[in-house]
Design goal:
5 helices; 4 strands; Nuclear Transport Factor 2, Chain: A; globular; alpha+beta
């Protein structure tokens, strides 16, 4: 095989690479839309309510309405201190974009039963990060079990 044939095949492969990335991105975007449609309205409402309570600094309400798992993992004082630290370092939430939504049904472990884990790419006043809300279904209601924020602005 001559060098010209090799170069021709290589340029064809390099030319197809951007097209492959565009198709991969388009497929991923379709997958995100499907995730959004599959989230029950009750789960979206629960996340919205928790988000509003955090924004309004109603930390005691978030704690009292959370699942038993939340209260087993942290005291009211620890929860309030964590929320205040997040507010001081990151500021208010300006926007959230859903990145993933996962539904699980667990037969054992701390997250027993139906669980939704929703991860958002979040823009805060003082930086960007990822927010993860873990909700468990208890007696027909969706309750906050865990809340995690990761951001380089927290360092």
């Amino acid at each position: 095989m001559s060098i010209f044939e090799t170069m021709s095949k290589l340029s064809l492969r390099v030319g197809l690479l951007p097209l492959a990335f565009v198709l991969l991105f388009a497929c991923a975007a379709c997958g995100l839309k499907a995730d959004r449609r599959s989230i029950p309205a009750e789960v979206e409402s629960a996340v919205g309510g928790v988000g509003e309570d955090i924004a309004a600094e109603r930390y005691e309400k978030v704690y009292s309405e959370a699942s038993d798992l939340w209260r087993q993992d942290a005291t009211l004082e620890q929860s309030v201190a964590t929320f205040k630290t997040l507010r001081e370092k990151l500021g208010r939430v300006e926007s959230r974009v859903l990145q993933s939504a996962t539904e699980q049904t667990n037969s054992s472990g701390p997250l027993t039963g139906r669980v939704y884990i929703l991860t958002y790419r979040t823009k805060f006043q003082n930086g960007e990060g990822m927010e993860t809300f873990t909700l468990v279904e208890r007696k027909g209601q969706w309750l906050l079990a865990r809340y995690l924020v990761t951001s380089t602005a927290l360092k």
